Automatic annotation (TrEMBL):
It comes from Ectothiorhodospira marina. It catalyses: N-acetyl-L-glutamate + ATP = N-acetyl-L-glutamyl 5-phosphate + ADP. Pathway: Amino-acid biosynthesis; L-arginine biosynthesis; N(2)-acetyl-L-ornithine from L-glutamate: step 2/4. GO terms for cellular component: cytoplasm. Transmembrane segments: none annotated. This is Acetylglutamate kinase. HAMAP family: ArgB (MF_00082). Substrate binds at residues 72-73, 94, 199.
Length: 301
């Protein structure tokens, strides 16, 4: 057999094996809701973004209901920078004055949301972009943030401006899109009772969305291989107790704290599993859902 024929044989077998391996997962997740949070740090290059969009289209095509919640922190930062405005974070949350809120809405609801929608549609999907304002999807209230301090008695409530938390979610518009073969793509902007817009951390929105939709899985795509221990090794599975210990010892810190807490809240409220995975790996979503490999960190209740 010539070398190229042997290679062809190998790749044919590999393709056949991968497709066969995917079958039970396709059957298991068919008609199930999967909430996928696409973090701004995972949107690093055009090829990766296209790969993500193709994965979402494929999942929908084989009968699953992917719901995308996206971030865009670095993209907001870049726009603020261009406008000569400084980004300021407290405990991973952006301090959001009125002007910043306008930029947040422009970047999340405009640029980032429409880029993802457009990519999914280029690959044959039917994505519809939403902010929390559309169809009254995300009702928000002002977040009274308790600053993280080593001494709990010294902790204080601080004002972050137009930063919100989820007060409630009305999933009617998402159900309507799902049943109509559309893919909802949601920007984390909520609306207060007074009609005021609130900037909400995208992990928080994804976690609550997964709970309200009784999702099968919550997948959080970020820029690390998953949760790492103090020696930098990947922790493939974590329970609530282990998470508390890792936060207590400072191994889990910064932006990973709200992320993992949202994942825990989701599994505690009925989502079957939550995964923190590396969005910088090509087709990370498909690898997680359709192969035996399982990538990243699995959070159990
Ligand atoms: N134990 C840990 N394992 C992995 N990442 C951690 C850990 N503790 C803190 N982090 C930080 O959390 C970051 C991910 O959170 P964040 O920057 O908010 O992501 P995203 O923008 O994707 O929501 C990682 O890039 C890393 O710097
Ligand atoms: C309150 C708050 O911090 N909101 C975030 C919303 C975007 C986000 O969460 O984006 P990533 O997932 O890419 O980090 C922000 O303004 O950056």
């Amino acid at each position: 057999m010539s070398e190229s024929t042997a290679m062809d044989q190998i790749s044919v077998h590999t393709i056949a094996r991968v497709l066969t391996e995917a079958l039970p997962y396709i059957q298991r997740f068919s008609r199930k809701t999967l909430v996928i949070k696409y973090g701004g740090n995972a949107m690093v290059d055009e090829e990766l973004k296209r790969g993500f969009a193709r994965d979402i289209v494929l999942l929908k095509q084989v009968g699953m209901n992917p719901v995308v919640v996206h971030g865009g922190g670095p993209q907001i930062g870049k726009m603020l920078d261009q406008l000569g405005k400084e980004s300021r974070f407290i405990d991973g949350l952006r301090v959001t004055d009125r002007e910043t809120m306008d930029v947040v809405q422009m970047v999340l609801g405009g640029l980032v949301n429409k880029e993802i929608v457009s990519l999914i549609n280029q690959f044959g999907g039917r994505a519809v972009g939403l902010t929390g304002k559309d169809g009254g999807l995300i009702r928000a209230k002002r977040l009274h943030h308790r600053r993280v301090k080593a001494d709990p008695d010294a902790s204080e409530i601080i004002d972050l401006g137009h930063v919100g938390e989820v007060a409630s979610i009305d999933p009617a518009v998402v159900h309507m899109l799902d049943s109509g073969d559309f893919i909802p793509v949601i920007a984390p902007v909520g609306v207060g009772e007074d009609g005021v817009a609130y900037n909400i951390n995208a992990d928080l929105v994804a976690g609550k969305m997964a709970s309200v939709l009784a999702a099968e899985k919550l997948i959080l795509l970020t820029n690390t291989p998953g949760v790492l221990d103090d020696a930098g090794n990947l922790l493939t599975g974590l329970t609530a107790r282990e998470v508390d210990e890792l936060i207590g010892s400072g191994v889990i810190h910064g932006g990973m704290i709200p992320k993992i807490q949202c994942a825990l809240d989701a599994v505690k409220s009925g989502v079957k599993s939550a995964h923190i995975i590396d969005g910088r790996v090509a087709h990370a979503v498909m690898l997680e859902l359709l192969t035996d490999k399982g990538v990243g960190t699995l959070i159990r209740g």
